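1st attempt posting a full record on here, be nice pls
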Amino acid sequence: MGIWQRFSLIFRSKANKALDRAEDPRETLDYSYQRQLDLLAKVRRGVADVATSRKRVELQINQLEQQSTKLQDQAQKAITMDREDLAREALTRKSGLTAQIADLKTQLGQLQAEEEKLVLAQQRLQAKVESFRTRKETIKATYTAAEAQTRINEAMSGIGDELGDVGQAIQRAEDKTAQMQARAGAIDELIASGALDDVTATSGGDDIARELDALSSRADVEAELAALKGGGTPASAQLEAGEDGGDILAVEKKSEGEQA
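the predicted structure (as tokens):
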């Protein structure tokens, strides 16, 4: 197979596919039905033409028969009046009319036979057209239903794909939400354990407050240490004594007075 033959084959195959996609069977069926109606109309016109011709021949035959009857009467009258010559002329004309009538009757028989054939053909064609119309409407309804079902299936398939994408997006959102919740919980645990300072619980002067607290703590330690060295009671012990703290202070003052 040459390159041009291959190219022609490919072109025809692609053209056939394009035609298949572009063709609507319903339009094709309607077009075929219209063509059949046109043919049926032509047959009907043919039947009407033959019937018209037959009717015209019948009228001619009737006219000639009337003339033939008139000539017969004239011939009879001429014989009565002893005019044999006129009777012979009338009979001669009548003989010519009789031949014409015979020819017309032969033609009439042919027209009648042709008309009967055309009427029978018209009836058969009309029955076929009606049968085709019923089948056409059935096929069109079936095709329309199949087309609608196909569109529904395609729509459902598209919705399924879209829902799949939405489901994936929802899953990702849920995963991110769970991850952020886990992270927030971990931060709360770190803050609660002291491993991580809670920035939101402090103000802008936190550094100064912490330094003052540290100095106060050191001062307390030094005071308690000095009290221990002097044999006194640490301030922390005094606070723990509660209501007895006043007695302890009185004893300490008495001891200081004796030493003085």
